[in-house]
Design a protein that fits this description.
CATH architecture: 3-Layer(aba) Sandwich
Shape: globular
Number of helices: 5
Largest sheet: 5 strands, parallel
Structural class: alpha/beta
Length: 134
């Protein structure tokens, strides 16, 4: 992790998931500034901070709301609409996937199982980051 890299916003209400994603990204030493938040309200507040995140990882089910509401905010705010958003869920619900796709999600998936699955997921997720400057 660096102090001046691209902002990566991870929103998930499961503390263990936030910790694991954070640690695995730190081990990869990606050129990013990682922000881990546990709720939609806090995430919405963080979206007002400049520069905007380069990519957002967003859980569907949040303790204080629904990730689809945050996706809707991202896609209706002209200053945020181009940010890649990856949504994931612990459960496969075709209706939620369809709604996320209709709102313009970049990629929708179920949460990976095990460390190998998370590792492969993070490879694909980090490919959404802009190239490092320098």
């Amino acid at each position: 992790m660096t102090d001046g890299g691209a902002r990566v916003l991870v929103v998930d209400d499961d503390a263990d998931t936030l910790f694991l994603v954070g640690e695995m990204l730190r081990l990869r030493d990606c050129d990013c500034v990682l922000e881990l938040v546990s709720g939609g309200a806090e995430a919405a507040e963080r979206l007002t901070v400049l520069p905007a995140p380069a990519v957002v990882l967003l859980d569907v089910n949040l303790a204080d709301g629904n990730g689809l509401d945050l996706l809707r905010l991202l896609r209706t705010d002209a200053s945020l609409e181009g940010i890649p958003v990856v949504m994931w869920s612990g459960e496969e619900d075709p209706r939620v996937r369809e709604e996320a796709e209709a709102l313009g999600v970049t990629w929708f998936t179920t949460k990976p199982r095990g460390l190998d699955g998370l590792d492969r997921f993070l490879d694909r997720f980090l490919a959404l980051l802009p190239p490092a400057r320098g």
